[in-house]
Protein backbone atom coordinates (compact mmCIF):
# COMPACT_ATOMS: atom_id res chain seq x y z
CA UNK A 1 0.00 0.00 0.00
CA UNK A 2 1.52 3.41 -0.94
CA UNK A 3 2.49 5.66 1.93
CA UNK A 4 0.33 8.71 2.46
CA UNK A 5 2.13 12.05 2.90
CA UNK A 6 2.20 13.15 6.51
CA UNK A 7 0.55 16.58 6.94
CA UNK A 8 2.99 19.26 8.08
CA UNK A 9 0.35 21.50 9.63
CA UNK A 10 2.74 23.59 11.71
CA UNK A 11 4.80 24.72 8.70
CA UNK A 12 3.20 27.61 6.81
CA UNK A 13 2.77 27.57 3.02
CA UNK A 14 4.66 26.93 0.87
CA UNK A 15 6.92 24.96 3.20
CA UNK A 16 4.46 22.49 4.71
CA UNK A 17 2.85 21.40 1.42
CA UNK A 18 6.25 21.28 -0.30
CA UNK A 19 7.66 18.99 2.39
CA UNK A 20 4.61 16.73 2.24
CA UNK A 21 4.95 16.38 -1.54
CA UNK A 22 8.68 15.70 -1.27
CA UNK A 23 8.16 12.94 1.32
CA UNK A 24 5.37 11.42 -0.76
CA UNK A 25 7.63 11.14 -3.81
CA UNK A 26 10.54 9.76 -1.81
CA UNK A 27 8.28 7.09 -0.31
CA UNK A 28 5.99 6.16 -3.19
CA UNK A 29 8.25 6.66 -6.21
CA UNK A 30 11.75 6.18 -4.84
CA UNK A 31 10.73 3.49 -2.35
CA UNK A 32 12.82 4.85 0.51
CA UNK A 33 12.46 3.16 3.89
CA UNK A 34 10.41 4.57 6.75
CA UNK A 35 13.62 5.30 8.68
CA UNK A 36 15.09 7.30 5.79
CA UNK A 37 11.85 9.24 5.38
CA UNK A 38 11.84 10.06 9.10
CA UNK A 39 15.41 11.36 8.83
CA UNK A 40 14.47 13.56 5.86
CA UNK A 41 11.40 14.80 7.74
CA UNK A 42 13.41 15.80 10.83
CA UNK A 43 16.20 17.48 8.86
CA UNK A 44 13.93 19.37 6.50
CA UNK A 45 11.48 20.50 9.17
CA UNK A 46 14.43 22.16 10.91
CA UNK A 47 15.63 23.71 7.66
CA UNK A 48 12.24 24.87 6.38
CA UNK A 49 11.26 26.23 9.79
CA UNK A 50 14.40 28.38 9.71
CA UNK A 51 13.51 29.64 6.23
CA UNK A 52 9.96 30.46 7.32
CA UNK A 53 11.22 32.24 10.46
CA UNK A 54 13.56 34.33 8.30
CA UNK A 55 10.61 35.49 6.20
CA UNK A 56 11.68 33.69 3.02
CA UNK A 57 8.61 33.78 0.78
CA UNK A 58 9.31 30.95 -1.65
CA UNK A 59 11.74 28.18 -2.51
CA UNK A 60 12.96 30.25 -5.46
CA UNK A 61 14.17 32.91 -2.99
CA UNK A 62 16.50 30.59 -1.04
CA UNK A 63 20.18 31.35 -1.53
CA UNK A 64 23.40 29.60 -0.55
CA UNK A 65 23.95 31.88 2.46
CA UNK A 66 20.77 30.58 4.10
CA UNK A 67 21.88 26.98 3.62
CA UNK A 68 25.35 27.63 5.02
CA UNK A 69 23.81 29.51 7.95
CA UNK A 70 21.89 26.44 9.06
CA UNK A 71 24.89 24.15 8.58
CA UNK A 72 27.01 26.54 10.68
CA UNK A 73 24.36 26.54 13.37
CA UNK A 74 24.42 22.75 13.48
CA UNK A 75 28.20 22.80 13.91
CA UNK A 76 27.94 25.43 16.66
CA UNK A 77 25.43 23.18 18.46
CA UNK A 78 28.05 20.44 18.54
CA UNK A 79 26.42 18.17 15.95
CA UNK A 80 28.73 15.52 14.52
CA UNK A 81 30.15 15.82 10.99
CA UNK A 82 27.96 12.87 10.00
CA UNK A 83 24.83 14.74 11.16
CA UNK A 84 25.86 17.91 9.31
CA UNK A 85 26.57 15.88 6.16
CA UNK A 86 23.21 14.12 6.41
CA UNK A 87 21.39 17.46 6.76
CA UNK A 88 23.16 18.77 3.68
CA UNK A 89 22.12 15.65 1.77
CA UNK A 90 18.51 16.17 2.87
CA UNK A 91 18.54 19.80 1.75
CA UNK A 92 20.18 18.88 -1.55
CA UNK A 93 17.57 16.20 -2.27
CA UNK A 94 14.80 18.70 -1.48
CA UNK A 95 16.18 21.40 -3.77
CA UNK A 96 16.69 18.93 -6.63
CA UNK A 97 13.05 17.95 -6.15
CA UNK A 98 12.10 21.65 -6.30
CA UNK A 99 14.04 22.01 -9.57
CA UNK A 100 12.19 19.06 -11.11
CA UNK A 101 8.86 20.54 -10.05
CA UNK A 102 9.75 23.94 -11.51
CA UNK A 103 9.50 25.67 -8.16
CA UNK A 104 13.01 27.07 -8.50
CA UNK A 105 15.61 27.56 -11.24
CA UNK A 106 18.70 27.15 -9.06
CA UNK A 107 20.06 24.75 -6.44
CA UNK A 108 21.62 26.74 -3.54
CA UNK A 109 23.33 23.58 -2.23
CA UNK A 110 25.16 22.79 -5.47
CA UNK A 111 28.59 24.24 -4.63
CA UNK A 112 28.60 23.16 -0.99
CA UNK A 113 30.97 20.38 0.09
CA UNK A 114 29.95 18.08 2.98
CA UNK A 115 32.35 17.76 5.93
CA UNK A 116 34.97 15.04 5.65
CA UNK A 117 33.92 11.91 7.51
CA UNK A 118 36.17 9.39 9.16
CA UNK A 119 35.73 5.84 7.90
CA UNK A 120 34.07 4.04 10.80
CA UNK A 121 33.95 0.27 10.70
CA UNK A 122 30.64 -1.25 11.83
CA UNK A 123 30.49 -3.37 14.96
CA UNK A 124 30.92 -7.03 14.04
CA UNK A 125 30.60 -10.17 16.16
CA UNK A 126 33.28 -12.82 16.14
CA UNK A 127 32.21 -16.20 14.77
CA UNK A 128 32.20 -17.56 18.33
CA UNK A 129 30.03 -14.68 19.58
CA UNK A 130 27.61 -15.19 16.68
CA UNK A 131 27.29 -18.88 17.57
CA UNK A 132 26.65 -18.07 21.24
CA UNK A 133 24.06 -15.45 20.31
CA UNK A 134 22.17 -17.75 17.96
CA UNK A 135 21.96 -20.57 20.49
CA UNK A 136 20.99 -18.34 23.44
CA UNK A 137 17.15 -18.51 23.17
CA UNK A 138 15.28 -21.24 25.04
CA UNK A 139 13.78 -23.22 22.16
CA UNK A 140 11.52 -25.23 24.48
CA UNK A 141 8.97 -22.38 24.32
CA UNK A 142 7.16 -21.05 21.22
CA UNK A 143 8.62 -17.56 21.67
CA UNK A 144 12.09 -18.96 22.27
CA UNK A 145 11.85 -21.02 19.09
CA UNK A 146 10.71 -17.92 17.23
CA UNK A 147 13.62 -15.92 18.62
CA UNK A 148 16.09 -18.59 17.50
CA UNK A 149 14.58 -18.58 14.01
CA UNK A 150 14.71 -14.76 13.87
CA UNK A 151 18.37 -14.64 14.89
CA UNK A 152 19.28 -17.40 12.45
CA UNK A 153 17.44 -15.58 9.67
CA UNK A 154 19.19 -12.26 10.37
CA UNK A 155 22.65 -13.81 10.45
CA UNK A 156 22.10 -16.19 7.51
CA UNK A 157 20.67 -13.59 5.12
CA UNK A 158 21.92 -10.18 6.28
CA UNK A 159 18.44 -8.70 5.83
CA UNK A 160 17.47 -5.54 7.64
CA UNK A 161 15.04 -5.55 10.54
CA UNK A 162 12.46 -3.77 8.36
CA UNK A 163 12.79 -6.45 5.68
CA UNK A 164 12.48 -9.20 8.29
CA UNK A 165 9.32 -7.82 9.92
CA UNK A 166 7.76 -7.35 6.46
CA UNK A 167 8.31 -10.98 5.42
CA UNK A 168 5.21 -12.94 4.44
CA UNK A 169 4.88 -16.68 4.09
CA UNK A 170 4.80 -16.54 0.30
CA UNK A 171 8.33 -15.07 0.34
CA UNK A 172 9.70 -18.43 1.53
CA UNK A 173 10.61 -21.24 -0.82
CA UNK A 174 8.82 -24.53 0.05
CA UNK A 175 12.03 -26.14 1.36
CA UNK A 176 12.97 -22.89 3.20
CA UNK A 177 16.32 -22.77 1.40
CA UNK A 178 15.67 -19.38 -0.19
CA UNK A 179 13.87 -16.23 0.83
CA UNK A 180 12.60 -13.51 -1.51
CA UNK A 181 13.19 -10.04 -0.10
CA UNK A 182 11.35 -7.04 -1.51
CA UNK A 183 14.09 -4.53 -0.68
CA UNK A 184 14.01 -0.82 -1.40
CA UNK A 185 12.82 0.92 -4.55
CA UNK A 186 11.52 -2.38 -5.92
CA UNK A 187 14.96 -4.05 -5.87
CA UNK A 188 13.84 -7.59 -5.04
CA UNK A 189 16.48 -10.24 -4.39
CA UNK A 190 16.77 -13.92 -3.57
CA UNK A 191 18.96 -14.83 -0.59
CA UNK A 192 19.89 -18.38 0.46
CA UNK A 193 19.26 -19.37 4.07
CA UNK A 194 21.77 -22.15 4.65
CA UNK A 195 20.89 -25.41 6.37
CA UNK A 196 20.98 -24.33 10.07
CA UNK A 197 18.70 -21.34 9.45
CA UNK A 198 16.38 -23.38 7.21
CA UNK A 199 16.05 -26.06 9.91
CA UNK A 200 15.25 -23.52 12.65
CA UNK A 201 12.79 -21.68 10.40
CA UNK A 202 11.06 -24.94 9.50
CA UNK A 203 10.73 -25.91 13.17
CA UNK A 204 9.29 -22.50 14.03
CA UNK A 205 6.75 -22.64 11.19
CA UNK A 206 5.71 -26.21 11.98
CA UNK A 207 5.63 -26.11 15.77
CA UNK A 208 5.63 -22.61 17.22
CA UNK A 209 3.93 -20.30 14.74
CA UNK A 210 0.64 -22.27 14.87
CA UNK A 211 0.64 -21.80 18.66
CA UNK A 212 1.25 -18.04 18.34
CA UNK A 213 -1.26 -17.46 15.52
CA UNK A 214 -4.77 -16.32 16.34
CA UNK A 215 -7.93 -15.81 14.32
CA UNK A 216 -6.95 -12.27 13.34
CA UNK A 217 -3.34 -13.18 12.40
CA UNK A 218 -2.26 -12.54 8.82
CA UNK A 219 0.48 -14.34 6.86
CA UNK A 220 3.38 -12.41 8.39
CA UNK A 221 6.16 -14.91 9.04
CA UNK A 222 7.20 -13.83 12.52
CA UNK A 223 4.46 -13.23 15.11
CA UNK A 224 4.51 -11.82 18.62
CA UNK A 225 2.79 -13.33 21.66
CA UNK A 226 -0.53 -11.72 20.67
CA UNK A 227 -0.53 -13.21 17.18
CA UNK A 228 0.38 -9.92 15.51
CA UNK A 229 3.36 -9.29 13.27
CA UNK A 230 6.58 -8.92 15.24
CA UNK A 231 7.61 -5.26 15.40
CA UNK A 232 11.01 -3.71 14.82
CA UNK A 233 11.27 -2.95 18.54
CA UNK A 234 10.37 -6.56 19.30
CA UNK A 235 13.29 -7.74 17.17
CA UNK A 236 15.64 -5.27 18.90
CA UNK A 237 14.46 -6.51 22.29
CA UNK A 238 14.98 -10.18 21.50
CA UNK A 239 18.49 -9.42 20.16
CA UNK A 240 19.43 -7.64 23.39
CA UNK A 241 17.90 -10.43 25.50
CA UNK A 242 19.82 -13.10 23.60
CA UNK A 243 23.04 -11.09 23.92
CA UNK A 244 22.56 -10.92 27.69
CA UNK A 245 21.98 -14.67 27.90
CA UNK A 246 25.07 -15.25 25.76
CA UNK A 247 27.23 -12.99 27.94
CA UNK A 248 27.98 -10.61 25.05
CA UNK A 249 28.54 -7.03 26.19
CA UNK A 250 28.16 -3.89 24.12
CA UNK A 251 25.34 -2.73 21.89
CA UNK A 252 23.87 -5.66 19.98
CA UNK A 253 21.16 -4.93 17.45
CA UNK A 254 19.65 -6.57 14.36
CA UNK A 255 22.07 -4.51 12.28
CA UNK A 256 24.99 -6.07 14.18
CA UNK A 257 23.99 -9.39 12.64
CA UNK A 258 23.74 -7.80 9.20
CA UNK A 259 27.24 -6.38 9.61
CA UNK A 260 28.53 -9.73 10.86
CA UNK A 261 26.91 -11.56 7.92
CA UNK A 262 28.75 -9.36 5.42
CA UNK A 263 32.08 -9.28 7.24
CA UNK A 264 32.17 -13.05 7.80
CA UNK A 265 31.36 -13.74 4.14
CA UNK A 266 34.17 -11.45 2.98
CA UNK A 267 36.58 -12.86 5.56
CA UNK A 268 35.78 -16.30 4.15
CA UNK A 269 36.70 -15.21 0.63
CA UNK A 270 33.34 -14.19 -0.86
CA UNK A 271 33.40 -11.80 -3.80
CA UNK A 272 32.50 -8.23 -2.89
CA UNK A 273 29.90 -7.94 -5.65
CA UNK A 274 28.17 -11.11 -4.47
CA UNK A 275 27.93 -9.66 -0.96
CA UNK A 276 26.62 -6.42 -2.47
CA UNK A 277 23.84 -8.39 -4.18
CA UNK A 278 22.98 -10.33 -1.03
CA UNK A 279 22.76 -7.14 1.03
CA UNK A 280 20.73 -5.32 -1.61
CA UNK A 281 23.16 -2.41 -1.82
CA UNK A 282 22.69 -0.22 -4.89
CA UNK A 283 26.26 1.11 -4.67
CA UNK A 284 29.34 -1.08 -4.30
CA UNK A 285 31.05 1.59 -2.18
CA UNK A 286 28.46 0.96 0.54
CA UNK A 287 29.54 -2.68 0.72
CA UNK A 288 33.25 -1.85 0.74
CA UNK A 289 33.06 -0.69 4.36
CA UNK A 290 33.08 -4.37 5.32
CA UNK A 291 36.35 -5.26 3.60
CA UNK A 292 38.49 -4.22 6.61
CA UNK A 293 41.77 -4.98 4.82
CA UNK A 294 44.96 -3.82 6.51
CA UNK A 295 48.04 -2.77 4.45
CA UNK A 296 49.71 -6.12 5.24
CA UNK A 297 46.69 -7.95 3.84
CA UNK A 298 46.76 -5.87 0.68
CA UNK A 299 50.47 -6.61 0.15
CA UNK A 300 49.87 -10.33 0.63
CA UNK A 301 47.03 -10.36 -1.91
CA UNK A 302 49.13 -8.38 -4.39
CA UNK A 303 52.10 -10.75 -4.04
CA UNK A 304 49.88 -13.80 -4.43
CA UNK A 305 47.72 -12.80 -7.37
CA UNK A 306 49.52 -10.13 -9.40
CA UNK A 307 51.84 -11.47 -12.16
CA UNK A 308 54.55 -9.04 -11.10
CA UNK A 309 53.80 -9.11 -7.38
Short note summarizing the structure:
This protein is an all-alpha fold and 309 residues long. It folds into two domains: 87 residues, Orthogonal Bundle (DNA polymerase, domain 1), CATH 1.10.150; 167 residues, Intergrase catalytic core (hpI Integrase, Chain A, Orthogonal Bundle), CATH 1.10.443. The chain is built from 13 helices and two strands.
The CATH architecture classification of the largest domain is Orthogonal Bundle
Radius of gyration from the alpha-carbon trace, in angstroms: 23 Å
Shape: elongated
Number of helical regions = 13
Q: What CATH first level of the largest domain would be assigned?
A: Mainly Alpha
Average pLDDT reading: 85
Record the SSE blueprint.
Layout: H1 15-28, H2 34-53, H3 64-76, H4 81-101, H5 127-134, H6 142-157, H7 161-165, E1 178-181, E2 189-192, H8 195-212, H9 232-246, H10 254-267, H11 272-279, H12 284-287, H13 295-305
Helix pairs in contact: 1-2, 2-4, 3-4, 5-9, 6-8, 6-10
